[in-house]
Amino acid sequence: MRRTTAVTGVTALGMLMLAACNGGPGATNKAGGGPGQAAASGGTVHVLATADFSHLDPGLGWDGGVNNFYRLIYRGLTTFGAGAGAKGTKVVPDLATDLGTPSDDAKTWTYHLKDGEKFENGAPIDSAAVKFGIERAWDPEMGGSPYPRLLIDAPADYKGPYQSGDLKSIETPDAKTVVFHLKKSFPDFASALTMPNFTPFPKGTGAGHAFDTKPIASGPYKVASYVHGASLKLVRNPEWDKSTDDIRAAKPDGFQWTFGLDGATIDERMLAGQGTDADAITGTIQAATVSRIQTPQLKARTLTGLTGCTTYLSMNTTRKNLDNVKVRQAIEYAVNKDTTVAALGGSQLAAKATAIQPPTMLGRKDYDPYPYSLDKARQLLAEAGLSSGFSLTLDARPVAAQTAVAVAVQESLKPLGIKVKINNIDTSTFYEVIATPAKQHDMALTGWCPDWASGATFLPPLFDGRNITSTANNNLAQLNNAGVNQQIDRIAGMKDVAAANTAYGDLDQQIMAQAPIVPLDYDKVVTVTGSNIAGAYLSNSYSGGIDLVSVGLKDAGK
Predict the structure, then answer these.
(1) Sign of dihedral through CA atoms 234, 236, 238, 239?
(2) If exposure means fewest CB atoms within 10 Å of the residue's CB, which of 88, 139, 246, 335 is most exposed?
(3) Which segments within 85-167 are labelled E, that is strand?
């Protein structure tokens, strides 16, 4: 579960650093004959960034971009496939020999490890290391994804391996076998294992935030040097065995990140492509720069596609007037999404949204329940007895793009007599405020990115009424609909994962009939690569960022 880039104010590299991407209408995953061609072996890929990664420790970090980076230095039991489009959302074995064997109604999962795997220090990647790495998720100093704690059975007072020791529900009958006992049936456990805090580590290592400065690598690269907020250098990990890794091409000899750069400076450097910038990649470019990509040479170095995130207008269904579904439906019809897309920089940076789930989701249905119609909106308000309109407060942040979207919503509702007051909340506390039901107002501008391409990581977190909490609440609409809750439970019990994803597509429609949110846009990436970059495509699992495991150089000798 992650907020969208358009709403969190993520910096230029942030689009290379978030959660599930691309493959939608108009997407170009491979540009010209340049970035998409096969990479040569050797050389260094440079990455220009405005901001550092959240954490080098996968027990703490949890966003699409840092997850993308983690694959260079870490391996897990499973991971996402390497490739543009649907290839990038397919869950595949990594350290494990397969996607696991379920038993006990998918409450128990058994995995076997490949032979010969080692950490950078030569220690074996065995079942004890897998168990220990996952146990770290319960440590009070850890954060990261909630999936180990949500899914794996554990005592209520368990506090991880450093404080509580062994977790009995993860068994290691031998050095190559790991058995997980879950709280409940979960047929899609292999997908959950792709999350970063399922990363193995040698037993006893990494207490506190040790891995934030000195990780222990299991992937093809290891950290050679790191200056927080300034630079990060990766070199090859000699203990990595390519013969056991079908995902990571690992063509470059290393990667060099430069952090703390101004976004406009990055754009100018990428367009010019001089010196080592010819070997560089970055995140999405600024809206003002998009129009400058005109020459065939620049177009050949440009990648575009969806991030896999949805920006939306949440409506608090417990507030006066908005507690009437007809009023919410009237707002659905009245919001002119052409103007919200324009506010986000136009069709090159955003696509008009209709369904809750973006086009990158498995089982997603393409439908439009509320096509723009002021006449239909007026009719519904009249039926609700509110023809003369009313007033609402919209929570937003004082960030240029979001302010523009807020104004577009405000202008859309004016013809209905609905007066929208924009309430700007400081960026640093925005999500804390709107996720506290006692503090949120009528509406909020926000967004969501999935953890993997399943409705399980999109719809239940946002719309299960039984999960509304007094703080850290994700169900901003405060929707608590019995039919929706029952359907969430029914799908959760389905053993066929593909059928469950199709059912989530149906649930999307069922939820939208209640009109708890207005889907505004599906965020897009536009990024320019260096002229010597090869093997670059946008990943379906990392918010439209360039998949780091496949990128390299055309000519490593330049």
Answers:
(1) positive
(2) 246
(3) 91-93, 101-103, 108-112
